[in-house]
Amino acid sequence: MTTWHDKAAALQADGRAFIGGERVWAKSEQQFENLSPIDGRKLGMVARCDSADVDIAVAAARAAFEDRRWAGKSPAQRKRVLVKFADLMQKHGQELALLETLDMGKPIKYSQSVDVGGAANCIRWYGEAIDKIYDEIAPTAASSLALITREPVGVVAAIVPWNYPMLMASWKIAPALAAGNSVVLKPSEKSPLTALRLAEIALEAGIPPGVFNVLPGYGAEAGAALALHMDVDCIGFTGSTRVGKQIMQMAGQSNLKRAWTELGGKSANIVCADCPDLDAAVEAAIGSIFFNQGESCNAPSRLFVEASIKDHFLEKALAKVPDYQPGDPLDENTVMGAIVDATQLKTVMGYIEAGQAGGARLLAGGKQVRTETGGYYVEPTLFDQVDSSMTIAREEIFGPVLSVLSFGDVQDAVRQANATPYGLHAAVWTADLSKAIQTSRALRAGTVHVNQYDGDDITVPFGGYKQSGNGRDKSLHAFDKYTELKTTWIQIG
Predict the structure, then answer these.
(1) What's the rounded Cα separation, in Å, for the pair 278 and 336?
(2) Domain containing 94: what range?
(3) Looking at the structure, do residues 166 and 276 belong to the same domain, yes or no?
(4) Which residue, 134, 184, 353, 392, has fewest beta-carbon neighbours within 10 Å?
(5) CA distance linking residue 454 with residue 298, whole number of Å
(6) Residue 387 and residue 279 share a domain
(7) How many CA atoms lie within 13 A of 444 on its CB side?
(8) Are 160 and 283 within one domain?
């Protein structure tokens, strides 16, 4: 039987950019090494695109938009192509999953079930949706007819992170392409391979050359050039709050392009003493923070437990932690894999040291493991006796580190939960319906979960309050980012 390791050994990754329907190296001929966080193996060389390549890709996207080779197709025609795109993604699902796991270290079981499945579903859903959205007629006087129509914004730049490379790309490109835009996608330099393969699959599905382009490269080079480009009409970014602020500044400095950002998080998970199912709350608290190695912007990294049940809760939680010990990402039994690279490993370990130095009590984990593999692995880590002033309670760690805080009443929990510049996700566990509704209304977050965590569907918007960004991915609301509203006023009497 062929194993995932056998498939990995036979893989030949293509790191060339995808511009105008063709694979090409950067104009400068510069490249960078792509190393797997699983064991440090070299996956290949990747094109290091810069402003010269951005100019070429944007010109290709603009030409495709202006001649309407894609925008001019009817919604039903675009739907058929996008549905075929999704079908082909699933056909090539094992290849895409392997690329995802090798590139960023997540377990292969989740690359298949979550990333490939979720990305294909996203492409298909927006394809199916686009011919079911109606324009409007305004209720004007009888002497006029006012039409309100949606039009594609033009050339869309999408910059996506390394933690969910394929899923985050699909959240951007699916509504943008469905609406008739041309797209230039820049994946993270840490995980470029699935985005590049998706471009080939899109071409095979029937998306015309120039409509979907992919530029690998560094953020300070290719990413900044896209944000500053005068012929990019809109930019969608998912990543850190620090870089998101830079993206918005560059958008303003250039052509005032629309800039939509989904940024960092420090999500609060509040467990009240009247929680209806403590075991479910424990499972969600532990499973959600350690899923994807903690490299999730919506990870519930701050766990607030009512003081009267905290010791009992922690006892149950600590019994679950060993289930998430990191293992070989290419083993289908592994549930937690490798940290994406040495830089992120150093960042996570630095926060663990800061937690100990700051007075938090380390109850579990805290060490780098599997060092003999040459990869980057961190134990699932749990801190108790954390207060909201500590660094590990204030800053986004993006690793498998959980901070436990206590509270006296739910108002105290809400006050602490909201005392952060972020506002992405939150949760409350209580059997009291009134308390659940009042708390969810009081929490300043884009999504509030009640008696669960990570409930999700393509039909609901994803995004945050405050410095967690603006705009929303997913759902029909995403079309608001990638379309213009036009009023056509016709005098008829």
Answers:
(1) 23
(2) 4-263+469-487
(3) no
(4) 134
(5) 9
(6) yes
(7) 15
(8) no
Specify whether 297 is catalytic: yes
For the chain, the domain total comes to 2
User: Is the domain of 372 the same as that of 233?
Assistant: no
Q: Out of 49, 122, 297, 396, pick the active-site residue.
A: 297
Verify that 37 and 152 share a domain, yes or no: yes
Same domain membership, residue 278 and residue 223:
no
Task: Examine residue 144 and state whether it is found in any structural domain, yes or no.
Answer: yes
- Which among 100, 262, 379, 396 is annotated as catalytic? 262
pTM above 0.90, yes or no: yes
In a structure prediction context, what are the per-residue pLDDT tens digits for the chain, which is 493 residues long?
899 999 999 999 999 999 999 999 999 999 999 999 999 999 999 999 999 999 999 999 999 999 999 999 999 999 999 999 999 999 999 999 999 999 999 999 999 999 999 999 999 999 999 999 999 999 999 999 999 999 999 999 999 999 999 999 999 999 999 999 999 999 999 999 999 999 999 999 999 999 999 999 999 999 999 999 999 999 999 999 999 999 999 999 999 999 999 999 999 999 999 999 999 999 999 999 999 999 999 999 999 999 999 999 999 999 999 999 999 999 999 999 999 999 999 999 999 999 999 999 999 999 999 999 999 999 999 999 999 999 999 999 999 999 999 999 999 999 999 999 999 999 999 999 999 999 999 999 999 999 999 899 999 999 999 999 998 999 999 999 999 999 999 999 7
Domain of 100, CATH number, reads 3.40.605.10
Give the long-range contacts of residues 319-322, CB within 8 A, separation 24 or more: 320/282, 320/283, 320/286, 320/287, 321/286, 321/364, 321/365, 321/380, 321/382
- By C-alpha distance, which of 202, 137, 150 is closest to 179? 150
Sign of the Cα pseudo-torsion (222, 227, 230, 232, in order):
positive
